[in-house]
Amino acid sequence: MEKQLDALKDELRQALAGVENMNQLNETKARYLGKKSPLQDLMKLMPGLDVEERKNLGRQVNEFKNYAGELIAKKARELQELKVREQLEKDAIDITLPGKAFSIGRRHLLDQTWEELEDIFIGLGFQIAEGPEIELDLYNFEMLNTPKGHPARDMQDSFYIDENNLLRTQTSPVQIRTLIAAKGDPVKIVCPGKVYRRDNDDATHSHQFMQLEGLVVDKNITMADLKGTLRLLMRKLFGDRLEIRFRPSFFPFTEPSVEVEVTCFKCYGKGCPLCKHSGWIELLGAGMVHPNVLRGTGYDPKIYQGFAFGMGIERVVMFRHGIDDIRLLYGNDPRFLEQF
């Protein structure tokens, strides 16, 4: 029996030498230690042996099991280490290869123009003012000389949260908030931000757009100050060859009110399809702050005067870059955005 067990040890060592994976190892283990192994055949002889022979056989069988278990465990560790080495070789990185280039994002054209406008006005001594997009009807309309039932509301009554709150239709409420907070001191601000109106979404209109408004209130402010400020702004945006002109208009919160036109930046006044052969492009609205607005925010209109203006940032972008559809600015199409 001892010779049989020694022979099994030799056979097991040879079998393990040819094992290449865990499946083969499990099969080898079952072949030498399983229920149908030669070891079990030896165990079946024990009932016919005397006490000493049974003890001797049991000892030898246990020694074989321990010996076989150690060999199998050692082989399992070798296979696991081999698997890890193969995986490391497979996942190895050649550090001499060139790296993968990552695409770098860029500022959206609207954001670029927004920041450029802010920089221009900061250079002129203006401060940047901001306010909530959900606004009180009081600030959005009533304190801007547009009471309930006023016909000027018809084009702007839009997205109401409740009876007294709505998505602001202009950034003018920021002017009201600033004037109230200033408590009679001079004010010189621009108010950029998103606004919302009841507009059809088409090539030139959107229910949401960006607006920049300006406000100056102080003593001895005249229409000449407004004209000089806007002339400088237009030349910064479109070049030194542009001129501006005012045409009478109506806004409830300014008096007098004007529509501001600039020389067509494509034909410089000669006439082309962009300006409809007029030589001029309407760009923004402006005017002198209405006395009712000054009075309602704590200013004496006999002492203080002011001017205000407002423009759509999308309109500036479209004119400067020859974009004919406002929806392109919100379409998130990389082919369009990467041009700027």
Notable traits:
single chain; 340 residues; alpha+beta; two-stranded antiparallel sheet; 11 helices; rod-shaped
Give a written overview of the molecule.
- With 340 residues, this protein is an alpha+beta fold.
- It contains eleven helices and nine strands.
- The strands form two sheets. The chain has a seven-stranded mixed beta sheet. The chain has a two-stranded antiparallel sheet with strand order 2-3.
- Strand 6 and strand 7 form a beta hairpin.
- The chain is rod-shaped.
- 25% of the residues are buried.
- The mean pLDDT is 86.
Give the arrangement of secondary structure elements.
Blueprint: H1 2-17, H2 22-33, H3 38-43, H4 51-90, H5 109-123, E1 127-128, E2 134-136, H6 137-140, E3 165-167, H7 172-182, E4 187-196, E5 208-219, H8 223-238, E6 244-251, E7 254-263, E8 280-289, H9 291-296, E9 304-312, H10 313-321, H11 334-337
Helix pairs in contact: 1-4, 2-4, 5-10
The percent range for strand residues is: 15-25%
Largest sheet: 7 strands, mixed
- What gyration radius follows from the Cα positions, in whole Å? 43 Å
Per DSSP, the total helix count is 11
String of helices and strands: HHHHHEEHEHEEHEEEHEHH
Distance between the termini: 89 Å
**Helicity range:** 40-55%
Low-confidence stretches: none
Mean pLDDT value: 86
Instruction: Give the overall silhouette.
Output: rod-shaped
How are the strands of the biggest sheet laid out side by side? Answer: 1-4-5-9-8-7-6
Annotation, overall tally of beta strands: 9
Q: Classify the secondary structure makeup into a structural class.
A: alpha+beta
